């Protein structure tokens, strides 16, 4: 049975159909290439990110990636919503993400958080396609090891 992953895009304008989300499909394709059973991205207004996370965390997927809502706008609340669900944060992943994004000046305005709750790994990624690509690049070598640890597989 394939492990499940879910991508949630927090974007009021994309949820309203004002523009087509382009970051969610990048994360979905990345997770599918990594072998996860991943439906198309769930797109919700910024104000509904916490409710969407409540629902998805309750389903218990192996991975949840969010995109959007990580900036400093008044309605950007994804980092806080993801943080509220984590029992263990993984700050090293956030540091690796910031290092991977260092060549983009506006990346300094983005916020992220990564961590786990039970057997689910979650990370908040920016809404930009470049930010999602940077996040996927950081996660590619880490996800197999994260999932193994969450499933209780240890080498020592």
From TrEMBL:
Keyword Zinc-finger part of the UniProt annotation: no
One Pfam match: MoCF_biosynth
Pathway(s) where this gene product acts: Cofactor biosynthesis; molybdopterin biosynthesis
InterPro entries: MoaB/Mog-like_dom_sf, MoaB/Mog_dom, MPT_Adenylyltrnsfr/MoaC-Rel
Ranges of residues in domain MoaB/Mog: 5-146
Keywords, alphabetical: Molybdenum cofactor biosynthesis
A Gene Ontology BP annotation from the UniProt entry: Mo-molybdopterin cofactor biosynthetic process
Protein name per the record: Molybdenum cofactor biosynthesis protein
